[in-house]
Specification:
The chain has 202 residues and is mainly alpha-helical. It has 10 helices and 2 strands, in the order αααααααααββα. Helices cover 66% and strands 10% of the residues.
Length: 202
């Protein structure tokens, strides 16, 4: 048997085993009752190309990140979703779009932790979506650095575009203006960034 054939068969076997594990997690887990997400996962399972396999790997990792929810927490969350069909649909859309875009598996773990906070009503859907969008935009090492040290100036500078930090009106003199005016430019952790660090360190 050629090496290429062996590699191909190994990949297919790995994918099939991954689908079995994913199917079990999905059927027994929380997300089976969220519309759109389930349909998207089934479609990705049928189409065995690399992008879809990567998406399924991220879904599997996400599911493992939220599997410790108690039955009561799941029931309360799903009951609340059932009473708000438009929110239920929005949750599914949000998860599919964000998980599909994530460029690092570690971001999937962070997203799962934030989703747990949403399920437990520690944050609302809008806040979860804002945080999820920030995670999508930011570089993973800057995110991890912020969690460890919220005052890390380099991380804060890099995270401005994500919204986890913001330009400050005070800081190191950057340039002279007209006359005696001096422009001060600095960075600080934003309100969203503070909330993110607090949630991740609970």
């Amino acid at each position: 048997m050629k090496d290429s054939e062996l590699t191909s068969q190994s990949f297919e076997l790995s994918a099939d085993l991954g689908e079995v594990a994913l199917d079990l997690l999905f059927k027994e887990g929380l997300l089976k009752d969220i519309p759109i997400l389930g349909s998207f996962v089934k479609l990705a399972t049928i189409t065995k190309d690399i992008p879809n396999q990567i998406f399924l790997s991220k879904i599997q990792r996400f599911l493992r990140g939220i599997e410790n929810l108690s039955e009561k927490e799941k029931e309360n969350f799903l009951r609340n979703l059932d009473s708000k069909p438009e929110i239920k649909s929005k949750v599914g859309e949000c998860l599919v779009l964000i998980i599909n875009r994530l460029d690092d598996m570690e971001k999937t773990d962070i997203l799962a932790q934030l989703f747990l906070k949403y399920v437990k009503s520690n944050i609302d859907l809008e806040t979860f979506r804002r945080l999820a969008s920030a995670i999508d935009i930011a570089f993973i090492e800057d995110i991890k650095g912020l969690i460890i040290n919220p005052r890390d100036n380099q991380c804060l500078t890099n995270l401005v575009r994500s919204g986890l930090s913001a330009v400050s009106s005070s800081g190191v003199p950057a340039m002279s203006g007209f006359g005696d005016n001096v422009i001060y430019i600095g960075v600080r952790i934003s309100e969203l960034g503070n909330l993110f660090v607090e949630l991740m360190n609970e």
